[in-house]
Amino acid sequence: MPAVKFKRTGRARRSWWDGIRRYRRALRRGAAIVALLGFGSGATAAYWFTDWPEQGRAWALGQIESYSIALGLTVQEVRVSGRVETDPGAALAALAVPRDAPIFSVDLAEARRRLQALDWVREARIARRLPATLSIHIVERTPFAIWQHRGVQALIDREGEVMATARLERWANLPVVVGSGAPRAAAAMIDALASEPMLQARVVAAIRIGERRWNLRFDNGIEVLLPEEDHAGAIRRLADWQRTYNVLDRAVAAIDMRFADRLLLRLAPDAGPVLRDPGEST
């Protein structure tokens, strides 16, 4: 079979030469980038491990920036992933990198620290994508509870970090913890309640007392005083008493569980004979 031959047109020749020129430009640019990286690595090593005078160090960093600008290695785009609640304007302000800044002059560790100082940001990762892009991935905190203290409500995560103090309506179904020290201790208390859904559904607030122990306030106004130690065990016992005696549906104002050997009830004003029926345990 005869070989297939293509007629070479002027346009084809131009396209072919254009491709060659583009290849040469890319090759030169790649070589320049490699040279810059080599120069930058040497300058950085000299900066940290030699006795260069301060002027010499400043000169080296200045040369890196100059070469970066000459090669077009400047920040032109910031790509952010993982952001849901974090305000994009706040994220860019925390990044604090102006457009056209030499991409190798960006202090990634410091920028990461600033981003992680934002209320919603639990973790941030930043990488350079040459020639001109900063790529940021944000891992946000997860709302866990509402903390109420001195008349102010705040959204907190499982670690007790405050995430927001305004527009909390979306999280009105989250557990409420009250008092000084409540955020840091909230996870253990809420986990203990979650093991007894019957009680958890009726608790309107967990109140931290003296940063040592908890009181539980129920939907009918009854307050349960839990002990300092083993509040999870006390919650299990309370659930057992509720299943057996309906103790949370009696005419009581408070249930004191702070003592391991006894249960104290404070009667409500209208208690009457409800707790004194023959054969009932109180």
Description:
- The structure is a single chain.
- With 282 residues, the protein is an alpha/beta fold.
Summed up, what is this model?
This protein is an alpha/beta fold and 282 residues long.
What about the largest sheet?
9 strands, mixed
The succession of helices and strands, N to C, reads HHEHHEEEEEEHHEEEHEE
Total strands: 12
How would you describe the shape? rod-shaped
Please render the helix and strand layout as text.
Blueprint: H1 10-49, H2 54-70, E1 77-81, H3 88-95, H4 108-116, E2 121-129, E3 133-140, E4 145-149, E5 152-156, E6 162-164, E7 176-178, H5 182-194, H6 197-200, E8 203-209, E9 213-218, E10 223-225, H7 231-245, E11 252-256, E12 264-267
Parallel strand pairs: 1-3, 4-7, 7-8, 10-11
Antiparallel strand pairs: 2-3, 4-5, 5-6, 8-9, 9-10, 11-12
Helix pairs in contact: 1-2, 5-7
Keyphrases for this structure?
282 residues; alpha/beta; Ubiquitin-like (UB roll); Rossmann fold; nine-stranded mixed beta sheet; three-stranded mixed beta sheet; 7 helices; 12 strands; disordered N terminus
